[in-house]
Design brief:
- There is one protein chain.
- The chain has helices spanning about 55-65, 70-95, 95-115, 130-135, 140-150, 165-175, and strands at about 1-5, 10-15, 20-25, 30, 45, 50-55, 120-125, 155-160, 160-165.
- α1 crosses α2 (about 70-95), α3 (about 95-115) packs across α5 (about 140-150) and α3 (about 95-115) packs across α6.
- A hairpin with a 5-residue loop joins β2 and β3.
- It is of the alpha+beta class.
- The longest helix has 27 residues, at about 70-95.
- The protein is about 50% helix and about 20% strand.
- Strands 4-1-6 form a 3-stranded antiparallel beta sheet, with no helix packed on it. A 3-stranded antiparallel beta sheet has the order 3-2-5. It has a 3-stranded antiparallel beta sheet with strand order 7-9-8.
- The protein has one domain: Orthogonal Bundle (Arc Repressor Mutant, subunit A).
- The model has no long low-confidence stretch (mean pLDDT about 90).
């Protein structure tokens, strides 16, 4: 198991027909390889320089036994991840491309805020193709939605990401 300490990691699965499905993006503080199996269901790729802290299952269990408050913290994080997974299922199943993009930006903003505190710019080290694969859209649709949101002055495109100009409006778009 690893904990990301710096950088961003893309989590993905290659389907039998060769298509790639992006499962998510791990930011600093996120766990990788947290599984009770020796074989992992997803692959991980660094999106630029990444540092991780490796910890064995045994050492992690010993740490949890010695520090019960960490188990409560882990429980909170797992509930948060489960909630994000449920929201993503709803997003993919019921939301328009515009709503998906808005929700993605709001989610990334909130995740970076948890890592860095206040966020002026939302870092997006992943490619537009990665975003498309994550949201179940085409790269053309992702590019079109980014351009539309920028034209509407909800966001502005900055080097390596976006700046959200109108968070309440972006959140309203995200919830439909």
């Amino acid at each position: 198991m690893h904990i990301v300490t710096e950088g961003v990691v893309r989590l993905h699965k290659t389907l039998a027909d060769g298509r790639r499905m992006v499962i998510g993006f791990a930011l600093p503080g996120d766990f990788l390889g947290f599984s009770d199996r020796d074989v992992h269901a997803t692959s991980a790729d660094a999106l630029g320089p990444v540092a991780t802290c490796k910890i064995s299952r045994e050492a992690f269990q010993e740490l949890l036994d010695a520090k019960p408050h960490l188990m409560r913290r882990l429980h909170t994080e797992l509930i948060h991840e489960f909630t994000l997974a449920q929201e993503r299922l709803m997003l993919l199943g019921r939301c328009s491309a515009r709503e998906r993009m808005a929700a993605f930006f709001v989610n990334m903003r909130n995740r970076w805020k948890r890592v860095n505190g206040q966020v002026a710019n939302v870092a997006l080290p992943m490619s537009r193709q990665d975003i498309a694969d994550f949201l179940g859209l085409t790269i053309e649709t992702v590019s079109r939605m980014i351009t539309t949101l920028a034209r509407e002055r909800v966001i502005v495109i900055v080097p390596d990401g976006i700046r959200i100009l109108d968070l309440p409006r972006l959140e309203a778009i995200a919830v439909g």
